[in-house]
Amino acid sequence: RRAIGTAAASAASPQVARRPCPAECADAAASSGSFPLAALAAGPYVGIASFLDARSLGRADVACRLLRGLNDQPTGPWHTMGEQTFFGMELDVVGGFQPFEQARTLGGNRSEDSWKARCALFRRSTPTFSAPFNGSEISHVDNPDEVAYCRCRLRTDLLDARPDRGVYIEVDVRSNVDNLSLAVVDFEGGGRSSVTFSPETGAVLRERKVREAPRAIEGTAMELHWDILLLVAIVLHIYLAPFTKVEESFNLQAVHDALVHGTDLASWDHLQFPGAVPRTFLGALFASALAWPAPGFFHCSGLALLTAVRLAVGICSWASHVRLRAVVSRTWGVPEARALGLLTALQFHLPFYMSRTLPNIFSLQLATLAHAELLGLALLGVAAAVFRCDLLVLIVTFFTAAFVTARAAALGAAASVAIDSVNGFVAALALAGDWGTHPALWYFYSALPRALLGALPLLVVGVLFERRARGPAAAALAFVALYSLLPHKELRFIFPAIPLLNAAAAAGAARCLRWKGLLKVLATLALLGLGVGTAFATAVMTVASSANYPGGVAMKGLHALEPPTSPALSVHIGNLAATSGVSRFSQERRDWRYSKEEGLSKDGLASRGFDRLLTEWPEVAGYRCVAAARGFETLAVQKWSWPPLSVVKVPRVFVLAKSADGATVPCSPENNYSDLEA
């Protein structure tokens, strides 16, 4: 032990001699009680030498050499670690480890003979907490560019204690914050952490929080405000744009019917308007199950119930993104996770659509979870088989085990077929071109810049300077490239790629903040500019998009204009109104008859005798104009005023009432009618 202490005392020297010791050195050491550094046997080094300074490298050299010598003895520390488990950094008064017997560590008198079983039981029964630690006895060595993204700490001053207390070398594995300090220091394998254990040369090191010496805790649980920021953005978009578009109608009507009509399938909207493409009901049933307390306990109806449904869908989308951000924090670091949360919250498209009942959003929720899970391809298989088959393109780009995906996809498809009978995809039915086409590179020069906004230049920085960002970015861009082969293109089709691209952009932002000197100052100013520009662009797009629902505004205004005691009315919903905000949630009067009969001309409407019309025509024979709902027309630049851009709205949907005397009163400036706005 005196020899060990001598070696440890000399460990602070930056250079360590590596000359082999002649045989007489050992005899001299045995007789004198000293042990020169040159006498240390040669052995493998901890695989962290490439990013240690000279002083720390000297300590690592001494520690590894001495440890190899101790392991040659029957009572070496790494031979006994299988029986005694040490809680790392739980220091006693003199700075040594406090050992615990295996039985007490693992709980009760339970013990396992197999080292694998011991480790599994240990992981289940031992609490952990996150880093960093604050203390002068720890040497912090950080290198974000290291392949494993580890933070290593060395302890060599423990060598003057008992040999069975060992040499403490802790590796913080950034790839798993739940087991942040669970590491196997395997000196035979170069000292790298691993999830495979060697009972002869490996040791499980685990840390826990000690009440007597509380330490700084840093982790995802302490930074929930970055996630709350995205949730606030989602709720704000629901408030500013509460209505829905025709793309959401299938799932939205199904959610309404499941909540209102239940098992009365004859009343479901799907029987009257099945749509052009058969789709699954699984997403709608899931959303209705989440929103069931709204009508069941709070007796919500109409637009209030629609808001509850969108909140439920939005919270699910938000939760999947929270999981992704947590994994980014664990694998890449806290700055990257912060940047991911801020970038996503400032953008327009993801927060705007996260609460909408689109099949793309249901698949986005599973795809985002899949990005965050090691075995996430199973979730991708379910999302592809049930909601969006185009996700198969994303699966192909991931180079993972096909049988896992195939099994999950088969289970998802079986459930979908059992409920829906038919499951299709637009591209498979060769109907994509019927809804318009775009050039092959449209996603890259139009859709992605609008979706990413300020994250686009950061994505370039991440791909160029961060190796870890290249894999997710390559997978996402490959998905977009393959999906560009389809003629019909919409931004929502590439939603599953946006979280991956945002993560790569977050890595680029964190990289900018790690630059030094003037470059860091310039990068910080650039990041602030990108953030302000993104927020401004999002505000403009939010205001413009909220004006795109004149049908919903007209329907809401119609119910507000009619007193609650008015007799039952028949209302015809025109094509523009039906596709710009009208849904079954907005049909608040149960005693009214709502019709969406298609293909009617002006004369046809007049001959049907409807009491009220929601139409894009400002004049119909025998009807008088009651109100007009304004919708988006264009953006106008305002000089010398704030804001510099304004949204120009024009009448889009007109509310017409049947004249008692058969007179025709058009919606014109000289006539007095209500001007409806969202």
From TrEMBL:
Pathway: Protein modification; protein glycosylation. Its EC number is 2.4.1.-. GO terms for biological process: protein N-linked glycosylation. Keywords: Endoplasmic reticulum, Glycosyltransferase, Membrane, Transferase, Transmembrane, Transmembrane helix. Signal peptide: none annotated. It catalyses: an alpha-D-Man-(1->2)-alpha-D-Man-(1->2)-alpha-D-Man-(1->3)-[alpha-D-Man-(1->2)-alpha-D-Man-(1->3)-alpha-D-Man-(1->6)]-beta-D-Man-(1->4)-beta-D-GlcNAc-(1->4)-alpha-D-GlcNAc-diphospho-di-trans,poly-cis-dolichol + a di-trans,poly-cis-dolichyl beta-D-mannosyl phosphate = an alpha-D-Man-(1->2)-alpha-D-Man-(1->2)-alpha-D-Man-(1->3)-[alpha-D-Man-(1->2)-alpha-D-Man-(1->3)-[alpha-D-Man-(1->6)]-alpha-D-Man-(1->6)]-beta-D-Man-(1->4)-beta-D-GlcNAc-(1->4)-alpha-D-GlcNAc-diphospho-di-trans,poly-cis-dolichol + a di-trans,poly-cis-dolichyl phosphate + H(+). It comes from the Eukaryota. It is found in: Endoplasmic reticulum membrane. It is a multi-pass membrane protein. It is an enzyme of class 2 (transferase). GO terms for molecular function: dol-P-Man:Man(7)GlcNAc(2)-PP-Dol alpha-1,6-mannosyltransferase activity. The chain crosses the membrane at residues 442-464, 471-487, 493-513, 525-547. Mannosyltransferase that operates in the biosynthetic pathway of dolichol-linked oligosaccharides, the glycan precursors employed in protein asparagine (N)-glycosylation. The assembly of dolichol-linked oligosaccharides begins on the cytosolic side of the endoplasmic reticulum membrane and finishes in its lumen. The sequential addition of sugars to dolichol pyrophosphate produces dolichol-linked oligosaccharides containing fourteen sugars, including two GlcNAcs, nine mannoses and three glucoses. Belongs to the glycosyltransferase 22 family. This is Mannosyltransferase.
